[in-house]
Amino acid sequence: SQKIEQNSEALNIQEGKTATLTCNYTNYSPAYLQWYRQDPGRGPVFLLLIRENEKEKRKERLKVTFDTTLKQSLFHITASQPADSATYLCAPGGGDSSYKLIFGSGTRLLVRP
Amino acid sequence: GAVVSQHPSRVICKSGTSVKIECRSLDFQATTMFWYRQFPKKSLMLMATSNEGSKATYEQGVEKDKFLINHASLTLSTLTVTSAHPEDSSFYICSARESGTYSNQPQHFGDGTRLSIL
Predict the structure, then answer these.
(1) Which of B54, B43, B50 is nearest to B90 (CA)?
(2) pLDDT tens digits, A71-86
(3) In what order do the strands lie in the sheet with A72-77?
(4) Cβ of residue A104 closer than 8 Å to a chain B Cβ
(5) A-B interface: how many C-beta pairs under 8 angstroms?
(6) Cβ(B6)–Cβ(B22) under 8 Å?
(7) Is B60 on the interface with A (CB under 8 A)?
(8) Under an 8 A CB cutoff, do B49 and A99 touch?
């Protein structure tokens, strides 16, 4: 069955450093991959999308890479700030030509001032 | 833009009660909406895909008679948890995707409903 894996342990970094979150998937060939941010008690908020034919995507301090050979996506936040503290979810989709997304369990990021 | 409103945000009720949760797309039309369930520190589990004007598509293991979904208009989908029991207590989240967009377009999420069954 399809499996999406994200680091279950929280990532704890110092303000100003770059945070790197990993998303690995198995038994799945997504056409794209989306990243979302979720704050406690709230719904996820869309951040970035990267397609299977794209290696890298950037948006302000965010960067996403997509390696279909390794079946992995990396999510980077540069110059991290305490306000970046949240849970980040990866969601591959399009592998079955439907609109469905399959969410990973998320990685909690804590940025210390 | 692309705001999804989910109501109520919190429900506490007795076992055996049926609970209705509403999901509205405020500034766009949504042919397709999704209902998820999320346990503490766990990922979103897709329960069903709600299609405007037709029957919902349920994921394997989700009881359709337990979780009734109605998507009667392009801006509203409802989830009714029938005869709720304590094991149905959870965080329920809906999302919507804008009609007429490519399949890879993001889903817009509501802020969830915290359901507690006593």
Answers:
(1) B43
(2) 999 999 999 999 999 9
(3) A3-6, A19-26, A72-77, A62-67, A56-59
(4) yes
(5) 61
(6) yes
(7) no
(8) yes
> What tens digit of pLDDT does each residue of B34-93 get?
999 998 888 899 999 998 888 999 999 999 999 999 998 999 999 999 999 999 999 999
From the number of C-beta atoms within 10 Å of its C-beta (0-12, 13-18, 19+), residue A53 rates as: exposed
Q: Which two tokens stand for residue A99?
A: 């609109």
Chain B: give the shortest CA distance to residue A39, in Å: 10
CB contact under 8 A, B104 and A32: yes
Decide: A45 and A112 in contact? Cβ < 8 Å. no
Q: Among A50-59, B2-11, B65-74, B99-108, which stretch is predicted with the lowest mean pLDDT?
A: B99-108
Model confidence at A45, pLDDT cuts 50, 70, 90, reads very high
